[in-house]
Amino acid sequence: MCCICFRQCLPVPMFSRNDFSIWSVLKNSIGKELSKITMPVVFNEPLSFLQRIVEYMEYAHLLKIASEQSDPVHRMQYLCAFAVSALASNWDRLGKPFNPLLGETYELERNDYRVICEQVSHHPPISAFHADSEDFIFHGSIHPKLKFWGKSVEIQPKGTVTVELPKWGEAYTWSNVNCCVHNIIVGKLWIEQYGTMEIVNAVTGHKAVLTFKPAGWFSKDLHRVEGFIMDKNRKKLHFLYGKWTEFIRCTDIASYEEYYKENAHKFRSSDSKGPSSNSDSPVHTPKKVLAKLNSLKVGFKSQNTLTEVDDDVPPPGCEDGAEGGDIPKCDSTYSIDIPNSATLWEATPRPANASEFYQFTLFAMSLNEMEPGMEKKLCPTDCRLRPDIRKLENGDLDGAAAEKNRLEEKQRDARKSRKGKKGQEWKPRWFCQGTNPYTGQEDWLYTGGYWDRNFGADPQIF
């Protein structure tokens, strides 16, 4: 969606993080109660995690296109494009969104859709959302889990998302793949998405299986995504390929197989042992270093608080494959370009000034914008009204840090006051726990009523 009618930049450029490092926070916390240490606000970007969730909607037009297709396979193609496009804004976004307060909300209305989000749980942190339009309903809940692996941070976006196409009586469900931030200790920070995404049409039985390949698997071609659309009998119907940062294309199986015969080397890992064979991987971090890290019991909980390290072996996507802390180089000769392919999605170029403004897309630039008259109609829990986010956006780093600390203390005090008091338990206002009818799994479902704007008493979470 074009953002030409919205702002093209933030009020002030971001602070330089050159004098700060995440590792400096961790190593200086030895002997302290790490479960209560929060990351400095300089590592934040001026958005709440609820607003980051709404970045799913940057390419919502793909869902409209999907609903217009008469062939269920073509509908699946555009659902795949939408699922991949939702991750594109993550590239180079190394700032951490603000952790939502319990009861915090966010709304967004655009010409073609509207979406409401709510922080429905604080321990564990769970964010629920519901978007609707004439053509689709998109809903789900995200329970982000973060793990510290010594040189990398892994983000697991636990939870299932669902797209319903009412015109066809269909529903598509999937879970997002993991993300890894590399070079926490030394080198240039960079991120990648990795893992397998299965998009299932619960009605027709069609399924798409997409593999997001980490650099360690195929370091010649970064950000790569590829997979197949299959019918209910698992017969391959189409091949999808591209880069989650740039584009997704689709071709027929015959064209794929013919191309594969001549270019098999482009589809194979250069090392059959996989990324764990890389000598610079955290798996091969010296035992003394790992012991030191584990003795600190440092990791990440939700998006702000440090907690214990997982004792598991890091997954392939979180193994730092670049030597010397560099970002892996991409060799375009290994890129795939199959004849008879159709482009389903291309990423909108970021503005020229993106590096000054947290690498935001134009869509992201608009998410915290306070449009004329908006303050009077917003729910009082909307994160546009959060003073810490607003102060960071306006360049007041000290003020943002002070407000962030005040809000966190206020939230802790409110939780203590409710503890043990019958009937005082926190209840989400716009969502309730229930069963997703398409997956049969527990989910957070929208209860309705938000857009009537009868918000009731202000819980004064800010």
UniProtKB/TrEMBL annotation:
Coiled-coil boundaries: none
GO biological process: lipid transport
A GO MF label: sterol binding
Compositionally biased spans, kind Basic and acidic residues: 402-414
Cellular component aspect of the GO annotation: cytosol; perinuclear endoplasmic reticulum; plasma membrane
Cited Gene3D superfamilies: 2.40.160.120, 3.30.70.3490
Region spans: Disordered: 402-428
Protein origin, superkingdom: Eukaryota
Record InterPro entries: OSBP_sf, Oxysterol-bd, Oxysterol-bd_CS
Alphabetized UniProt keyword annotations: Lipid transport, Lipid-binding, Transport
Family: Belongs to the OSBP family.
The protein's name: Oxysterol-binding protein
UniProt organism field: Rhynocoris fuscipes
